[in-house]
Amino acid sequence: MQYLLGSESPLAEWIDGFGPRPGQLAMAEACARTFGQGVPLAVEAATGTGKTLAYLGAALISGLKVIISTGTKTLQDQVATGELPLLQKALAPQLRFAVLKGRSNYLCRRRFKAFTAQPDLELPGAAGTLERLRRWAETTGDGDLDEVRGAGLTAALVSEVTANGEQCLAGRCPLKQDCFLTEARRRAAEADLVVVNHHLFMADLRLKAEGHGEALPRYQAVVFDEAHMLPEVATQAFGVSVSSRRLRTLLRDLTREAANTKAINLAALACQKAAEDFFGRVGRLLGHSGRVGLTPAHLEALTDPGRALADTLEALAAGLGDNEEEEALATRAVGLAMDLQAVARPVAGQSVAWAEGRGRGAILHLSPVEVGPHLQHALYQHEGRLVFTSATLAPEGDLSPFIDRLGLEQDTHRLVVDSPFDLAASALLYVPPKMPLPSAPNFTEAVARQVEALLARSGGRAFVLFTSRRNLEAVSRDLADRLDYHCLVQGQAPRMELLERFKAESPSVLFATASFWQGVDVPGPALSAVIVDKLPFAPPDDPLVAARCAKVEAGGGSGFAHVMLPEAILDLKQGLGRLLRTSADRGLLAVLDARLVTKGYGRRFLKALKPIPLTQSMDEVAAFFAAEDRR
Q1: Is the pTM of this model over 0.85?
Q2: FRET pair for 568, CA 20 to 30 Å: which of 97, 254, 420, 578?
Q3: Residue 101: what are its φ and ψ, rounded to 5°?
């Protein structure tokens, strides 16, 4: 590792200003030990550590087949097009690496052929994009739809020309010899390092655990970058979901792929009517709530319409024929019926049933309260050469909450690498001297006035982030016409388009929900302030959060102290990480929530953000940005 990352490294010829970083070297050596000893490692490596080269260097010299799993597409692209080609040129010309994405990224020739034969030109984007897709499909080498994203390729159109796990015919497909996904998997099987994302990795674990094959090639070690996102992804992967959209997709595919007989049409109509009744009742349970936990009373009220829907799905499956397409449709219908029955049977303390509204539809979920037991069974008992890393894993320098959340053994190796940046000089934390509580009716008005004053000092160049859509809409409406900057609001355009406009049209201000900052990278002065309306606590009535808190409290602990507070601290640290991407960056983190300085638990937030200085003076904020102008 000294050779790869030390002062004599060949990388110095390829990277301007390259020099040894003690934290990077310590992390690389820890990763190398994990690959050699087979004991998992958890590493919090602050922004600026150079963690990607640290773990890639260790993987390179290990001689193992290593999976690199990322949480965001941005990092996946960075590793695949940046660091890996660099290592190949500078250190290992023989290195073979591949990128493997989920099914929805690859054109399915069978479904594309069926769609072009019966195009739905009412579908958003279809009329103007179909011919372009036809020309691209004739010349593409790997069928990756990222090559033609944008310019009319809507999510609705993508869903018509790709195949999810239920829609894929696999070995029974008549076009299997020309399958883009199969070819991508072949390249991954031959590679030394394979870059994937967490969703694909967890889907592979579930497939293997259930004996349904695999989505990834066999591997000997795994690095999870952006590992703070793993618990949520694993919760999705090891849960069950039944949505109105999933059923509509089944019935739409039925009209295209099954025989147009009276019996099938009647069975499909019965399914549609039963689904409208069932999901209509789910919608009434939701009311105006985005999410609701399903109590025994809720589940009892859904029992009869749920059983009726399951019966119509099973009847539909029984009436389908024995060709490849109809067999696959029958399997999907039976799978839907089984999942519907599973959601109705949560196990107290182990799983939670809940519903959420999405657009004009609804989704029912059965989610594990803890993912640790699933990961122990599906991953840890088979593989110990695992590295979990992120800039935010340890709320207050302690990795135990993360290790417990993922169900890792207590002998898991741990390392915290502090930031190499001069945080005391490059960042400032601002909390207003007076603010109404977030529950007060005048809170959003007070937020708007604070945001306006802060933006006047920063010259725009800010993310203004909210913990609720309601506050986002209220404040953005108040300020959009009053500010002298480009104002962008989440929902006006796709996420990546908003981000590119924010960079290109500087100075800009982006109003968004707090989740927007996940995986966002805006180095330089275009982003000089992150303003958060309130401390990012998860809603206590969120079904999953409530279930985890209840389990902790049943064991004598505090749900607030052991679940909600550590995760809120990590979320706030994520916001700080958006500001300081390079050693030259400077920025203001403003939290418009007086509880940060008036409540006892606020000290834990402040401790986690040290050594950033705290101010409650708008004059000091102005002086901070004036000093930036003099540099």
Answers
A1: yes
A2: 420
A3: -115, 175
